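Predict structure. Chain length: 161.
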Amino acid sequence: MHVHLFIRHGDRSPMYTLPNHVTPKLSCSLHDIDDEDAKTLISSMENLRSSLSKGSPLHRHNLYPRTKVCNGAMLTGQGALQHAHIGKHLRQKYIDGHHLLLVNSTRHIFVRTSDYSRTFQSAMALLHGLVPKSDLSKLKLDIVQSTLMCSRASSGLPCAC
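Prediction complete.
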């Protein structure tokens, strides 16, 4: 049995600005959210970061939103929390409810993300909610350059037409 889950990034800052429109200054820092789930997510990601080896693909982007002011199309702290809550909901249904995954194990989880920080951070937040006590450094992770989510490494097929 397989479960395939396709997600987009969480809440993000605007990708483009409109002429003669003042873009609001948004915080892209999880630290600015006074919420227990935000504190738990930060703590979990900081512990993970300190345990990573130098060559880990998890070093490619910040593990969670931590920029005081958003630039274009960055994941907000609220966007990260959205995915942590989705992961928690999925854990309740798939792990606690139906026992379809081992508790706190990434052994049967494969993550493919685009090479944008907003999608990578959304995936990390979702995993934090789904398997909060697992060792994410052992995660099977494929960071792809294609917005079509194609990866020659995992499919063995060319990604260009």
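Summary: The CA atoms of residues 45 and 74 lie 18 Å apart.
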